[in-house]
Amino acid sequence: MLRTRVITAIVLLAVLVPITLFAPIGAFGALIGFVVVFAAWEWGRLLKLNGAGPVAYALVAGIALVLSTFLGIKATPLYQMAGIFWVLAGPYALLRKPTLAAHAWRAFLLFAGIVVFLACWHAVVDARTRGVSFVLSLLLVVWLADIGAYFAGKALGRHKLAPSISPGKTWEGAIGGWLAVIVIGALAAATGFYAPTVFTAFVGQLGWDRAFVALSVLVAFSVVGDLFESLLKRQAGVKDSSGLLPGHGGVLDRIDALLPVLPIALLMLG
């Protein structure tokens, strides 16, 4: 299992790193578009679309991406709609746990998913236009929150964060992930290391106090994104969103926390 996981990670890095660092924006956007389309396919599967339903849903997502580009649709309204979804629907789902058997809820998620994936794609491309270091720093926020939560949870975890959704997550882990982001973010902003980054951008535009709040918001929504996908998987009765990435599960399993973080970060920066 570990060998498979490592091999998959190496292959992914071999593809993603050169394109992120050196490819023109068009090629980078195309790669991320493929990632988003596969994520949409998994979203359709988790919402229990029958037969070719998940493929059709992924096709709709892909067409929406292309049309939004060629029609010059502004990204900010997409960020706003995605932000509203994550601010309202995300916590509502985690607290109330509406089931997929409720057709209105599933229909809403099918529509909202297209908006979420569109906003995510535009946010990644937008971040890449601001610089390689900027887009990598945004990814780093999620990675740090995840790594910090893992080690803090292992060492100190006592109080379950959402036991009915993801029993392994604890409040101590979430706080550890938040601390990791705040400490590294403060150091990066203070030193200007590898600027421009999301850390220097927040401090430059918002000041230190509101930058602290903004990073805290991103960490909170990285947890919401992770738990939201866990809820969908639990209701769908599956462990992973798919088996597309051997040893890692599916695409959604890797980008779930990024789905809310990316558009909300770009929305806060304007």
Q: State mean pLDDT (0 to 100 scale).
A: 93
> Helix-strand pattern, N to C?
HHHHHHEEHHHH
- Given the structure, what is the number of helices? 10
- Structural class computed from helices and strand pairing: mainly alpha
The neighbouring-strand order within the major sheet is: 1-2
Give the amount of beta strand, in percent.
under 5%
Low-pLDDT residue spans: none
| Distance N to C terminus | 43 Å
The count of strands amounts to 2
User: How large is the radius of gyration?
Assistant: 18 Å
Describe the overall structure:
- A hairpin with a 3-residue loop joins strand 1 and strand 2.
- The protein has 270 residues and is mainly α.
- It has helices at residues 2-22, 25-46, 53-70, 75-96, 103-129, 132-156, 171-191, 198-236, 251-255, 258-269; strands at 160-162, 166-170.
- The chain has one domain.
- Strands 1-2 form a two-stranded antiparallel sheet.
- The mean pLDDT is 93.
- The longest helix has 39 residues, at 198-236.
- Helix 3 (53-70) crosses helix 5 (103-129), helix 6 crosses helix 8 (198-236) and helix 7 packs antiparallel against helix 8.
- It is found in: Cell membrane.
Q: Which key terms come to mind for this protein?
A:
270 residues; two-stranded antiparallel ribbon; 10 helices; lipid biosynthesis; cell membrane; membrane
